[in-house]
Each structure stands twice: as structure tokens, then as C-alpha cells.
Amino acid sequence: MGVIIRDLIMVTMAMCLISVANAAQGTATFYTPPYVPSSCYGYQNNGVMIAAASDAIWGNRAACGRMYRVRCTGPTNQGVPQPCKSTSVVVKIVDYCPPGCQGTIDLSKEAFSVIANPDAGKIKIEYTQV
């Protein structure tokens, strides 16, 4: 019985390491309403757990509709030394953040607020497609 439990623990640990290894790193900023129209869906309302993709993930509209789990990993400046909250958020890509975009993912203010203090303005993140 002990061998089975040990093996189960080892498999679980390996799966966790694989999921962490697949996480990309970048930065996140936020934008404020109105959230429509969007580049992907025009005037369709997609709620507030949404984001705009920068060129790093946009892929000529291929990112439209993709879901990403985003987690704050740290500050990008000295303004808010510990901006992160100990949670993640899942967002849907509905828009394009044009060249000059300050983040890899531009989250809605509501989504940003779930994972970090909005006063930070820009944070370091890990993100994975779900």
C-alpha cells in the first residue's frame, strides 16, 4: 500500500512540475471600460474577466477566444513593493493591445484587481493557456 501512495505522490509532483514548466512569463497592465467594441467580438459583451493580447500572443487574431490563467509574480517598479494577491484569474482574450502596449497581457481592471493592487499599474506575471 505504501508503494502505491509513494508512486501516486511522485506522479502528482511530476504533473505539477510540468504545468509550472509550461507557464510563460511576461507583464500585465490593465485597461478600463468601456470594453466594447473589441477587436475580436465587435459589440458583443464578454463580461469583465477579459484581456487584450499584445503582439507576443496575438498571432494575427489567433488569440481571440483563448483563455489564460494569469498569476501575479511580482512588481515591476518601486511604487507598490508587494502588489500581488495570492490567487490567479482566468481571462478570455477579446481584444488587441496595439504596438507600444506596455504589457504582454492587458487585463480588464476587474481581472487585474483579482490578482494585484491596481495602484501598481504594471506587474510581472506567469500565464498559461487553459
UniProtKB/TrEMBL annotation:
Its main location: secreted. It is found in: Secreted. PROSITE patterns: EXPANSIN_EG45. Residues 26-130 form the Expansin-like EG45 domain. InterPro entries: EGC1/2, Expansin/allergen_DPBB_dom, RlpA-like_DPBB, RlpA-like_sf. Residues 1-23 form the signal peptide. SMART domains: DPBB_1 (SM00837). Keywords: Secreted, Signal. GO terms for biological process: systemic acquired resistance. This is Expansin-like EG45 domain-containing protein. It comes from the Eukaryota. One of its GO terms (cellular component) is apoplast.
